[in-house]
Design brief:
The chain is an alpha/beta fold and 195 residues long. The protein has helices spanning 19-25, 46-61, 74-85, 117-120, 127-134, 183-194; strands at 5-8, 32-33, 67-72, 92-98, 143-148, 167-170. The protein has a 6-stranded parallel β-sheet with strand order 2-1-3-4-5-6.
Length: 195
């Protein structure tokens, strides 16, 4: 039986974001979960969204089924919280972080935490990201891959969309959204997911 794939969307996105990727995988029997995690335009803290992700995974696959996890943009940070703080790493085979501000982003630096705590969690040097990076050995048993775009204006500079361990790959696209929509990116991501 195939390992289920969990897809986590980012800020201002919904599960529809993954339509092209799912088509590109061309695996109709692959068990999939792409939960809708409403983020309130950034006012819901990322740890709260990770808790919702945990509940969705448990409802769909139970407490022990092994999964692969792909997070796009903010969804990659939510997925990382689930892996490192909510026990997800114990049941995850592979983690794909796509255009996710794992090291923070300049685009979030001016966001006021009291108004938009979820978006502010993605600031460079935020408490959340510092804690995740201090505990990054919690990912040691998971095969991790980071995909980024050099010219990304959402995760800026683009190289900050990289986990502190695992492999990383620059995708040949020009924008943040193209990381999950451009045919070249879909081909590369699909190939990695099928491997």
């Amino acid at each position: 039986m195939s390992i289920p794939l969990v897809l986590v969307h980012g800020l201002w996105d919904s599960p529809r974001l993954f339509h092209r990727l799912i088509q590109g995988l061309d695996q109709p029997d692959l068990p999939l979960l792409a939960p809708h995690l409403p983020h309130g335009l950034g006012w819901i803290p990322l740890r709260q969204l990770a808790s919702r992700l945990d509940k969705s995974i448990q409802r769909r696959f139970g407490a022990e089924t092994r999964v692969d996890l792909l997070g796009f943009s903010m969804g990659g940070v939510i997925g990382r919280i689930w892996l490192q703080e909510l026990g997800g790493a114990q049941r995850t085979r592979r983690f794909f972080s796509v255009g996710s501000p794992q090291q923070g982003t300049l685009a979030a630096q001016m966001i006021p935490r009291p108004l938009l705590p979820g978006a502010a969690d993605m600031k460079m040097g935020s408490r959340l990201l510092r804690e995740l990076n201090r505990q990054s050995d919690g990912l040691a048993g998971v095969y991790c891959s980071s995909f980024f775009c050099r010219w990304d204006l959402m995760v800026c500079p683009g190289w900050r969309a990289v986990l502190p361990l695992g492999r990383c790959e620059e995708l040949p696209v020009w924008t943040h959204q193209q990381l999950i929509s451009h045919p070249a990116a879909i081909r590369r991501l699909s190939s990695s997911l099928r491997a």
